[in-house]
């Protein structure tokens, strides 16, 4: 027996069908939106992150598009600074851009400094290939443990010359103070370098001194953020604050405001707080030893073809009594020709 469907039931059925059809379209629309958003997020993650052996690593944070503004303070005649991937390469000829006795008479930057013991240095700045290359991270990070500095260069100054620590020849700096010039530097046994506050451009101020081998910059004794000597330095002279080159606080070193001797201050006597990287450029084109004629032309002030103890310097002065075979108080060309070659200075 067939049961007739009332008009009311027909309306309900049509309404149900319409709602079902409308809901399906709406759900499909939402599903497409969800799929679009998911796909966009997946593509974004793909470009911003890569999977390495150590997990996810954000490559964007590692890429530098420009050098740190502080590098603008470095002498462009003596240094060449550029980005290489995520590192900064600082190449220098190792020469200072200021006056010093270690340039030698006749040089345009020669400065008379009679109190400086030239015998300890042995040679002049122009007698050596002083070139040096330092490669550091463009985003240096503090290490879990400090690292002690070694002999030799520990950084490069804004003048172009190297920075050394508070030691000299595996011993205290005290023994070499007589050879330090007016601006905290000296020559020996090879390149010219600084141990003390370089007053040629920084004296109890906030000036940039240079960069150390762990990638952190080092400044003068005062803090740019406060205009005073910082009181929150760690044992290496470092702290976090803004500088004249950045508005964002960052870790950097200062020359510690503790007098070493006679109003002089050690540039850096602590440990690296970052991870140091030292890479010395292979020396090349080393100038040949001067001839006998050239030595006499340079040292024989009175032109008598004899060198007195007051005229000679460096290794010749150190070995004067050995070279002066006839013990007459003078060295002749013949005696100098027969003299044993001085030992090469050992690089620290």
Can you walk through the features of this model?
This protein is α+β, with helices and mostly antiparallel strands and 348 residues long. Among the domains are: 69-254, no CATH class; 292-337, Recoverin, domain 1 (Orthogonal Bundle). It is 18% helix and 20% strand. It contains 5 helices and 17 strands. It has helices spanning 7-48, 292-299, 314-318, 320-323, 333-337; strands at 49-52, 55-58, 79-84, 87-92, 132-137, 155-157, 162-163, 167-168, 171-172, 185-187, 192-194, 208-212, 217-219, 238-243, 246-254, 307-308, 330-331. Strand 14 (238-243) and strand 15 (246-254) form a beta hairpin. The longest helix has 42 residues, at 7-48. It is elongated, with a radius of gyration of 34 Å. It starts with 6 loop residues before the first helix and ends in an 11-residue tail after the last helix. The relative contact order is 0.11.
Short description:
This protein is an alpha+beta fold and 348 residues long. The protein has five helices and 17 strands. Helix content is 18%, strand content 20%.
Order of helices and strands: HEEEEEEEEEEEEEEEHEHHEH
Rounded to an integer in angstroms, the radius of gyration calculated over CA atoms is 34 Å
- Quaternary structure classification: single chain
The count of DSSP E runs of length 2 or more, i.e. the number of strands, is 17
């Amino acid at each position: 027996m067939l049961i007739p469907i009332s008009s009311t039931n027909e309306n309900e059925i049509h309404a149900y069908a319409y709602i079902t059809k409308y809901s399906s379209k709406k759900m499909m629309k939402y599903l497409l939106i969800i799929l679009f958003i998911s796909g966009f997020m997946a593509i974004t993650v793909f470009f911003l992150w890569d999977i390495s052996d150590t997990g996810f690593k954000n490559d964007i944070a590692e890429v530098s598009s420009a050098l740190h503004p502080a590098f603008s303070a470095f002498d462009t005649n003596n240094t060449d600074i550029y980005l290489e991937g995520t590192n900064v390469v600082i190449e220098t000829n190792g020469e200072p851009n200021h006056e010093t006795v270690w340039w030698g008479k006749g040089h345009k930057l020669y400065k008379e400094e009679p109190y400086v013991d030239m015998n300890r240095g042995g040679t002049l700045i122009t007698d050596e290939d002083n070139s040096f290359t330092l490669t550091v991270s463009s985003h240096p990070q503090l290490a879990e443990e400090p690292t002690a500095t070694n002999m030799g260069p520990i950084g490069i100054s804004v003048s172009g010359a190297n920075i050394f620590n508070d030691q000299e020849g595996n011993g205290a700096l005290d023994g070499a103070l007589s050879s330090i010039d007016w601006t905290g530097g000296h020559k020996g046994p090879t390149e010219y370098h600084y141990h003390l506050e370089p007053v040629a451009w920084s004296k109890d101020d906030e000036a940039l001194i240079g960069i150390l081998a762990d990638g952190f910059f080092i400044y003068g004794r005062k803090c740019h953020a406060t205009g005073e000597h910082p009181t929150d330095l760690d044992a290496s002279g470092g702290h976090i604050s803004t500088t004249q080159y950045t508005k964002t606080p960052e870790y950097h070193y200062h020359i510690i405001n503790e007098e070493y001797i006679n109003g002089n201050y050690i540039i850096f006597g602590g440990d690296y707080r970052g991870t140091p990287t030292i890479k010395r450029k292979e020396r090349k084109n080393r100038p040949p030893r001067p001839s006998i004629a050239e030595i006499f032309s340079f040292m024989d002030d009175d032109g008598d073809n004899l060198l007195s103890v007051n005229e000679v310097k460096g290794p010749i002065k150190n070995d004067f009594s050995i070279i002066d075979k006839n013990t007459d108080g003078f060295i002749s060309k013949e005696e100098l020709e027969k003299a044993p070659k001085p030992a090469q200075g050992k690089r620290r």
